[in-house]
Write a structure and sequence with these properties.
The protein has four helices and eight strands. The chain has 146 residues and is of the alpha+beta class. It has one domain: Alpha-Beta Complex (Aldehyde Oxidoreductase, domain 3). The strands form two sheets. The chain has a four-stranded mixed β-sheet, with helices on both faces. It is globular and about 50 Å long.
Amino acid sequence: MTVRVQSEPFDTGAELNRFAQGRRDVGAVVSFTGVVRDTAGDLQEMLIEHYPGMTESAISNIADEAVTRWNLDDVLVIHRFGALTPGTPIMMVATASAHRAAAFEAADFLMDYLKSRAPFWKKEVTSKGASWVAAKDEDEDALKRW
């Protein structure tokens, strides 16, 4: 299991290739990459803050839960912090399992957690100023499935 919280950009293709390379013990590898989205057409950057140590620990705990719950063979979680521009990868989840259903469900679970519960704070900076991103009801509702 690998959990990385970093300011540096990452190459999703290279990360997925490393994660899946040489795997002969699994029947499914699932990945998801989240990208900074500019819904209003005026986003200059997304500032993401976190508490080092606490954030990694929280994500590792939920990744451990996913491994146990879905009997995963491996998990990769990468999440960036700092100033990110629209179109930039912000996070990536990859899961490896004997079966695709478990890999998909576990990846979905991890993504819902990262969106709603991982200790990150996001601020959108536009030409009109900056504002903190509030939690969304639909993101909270998604957690109820788990």
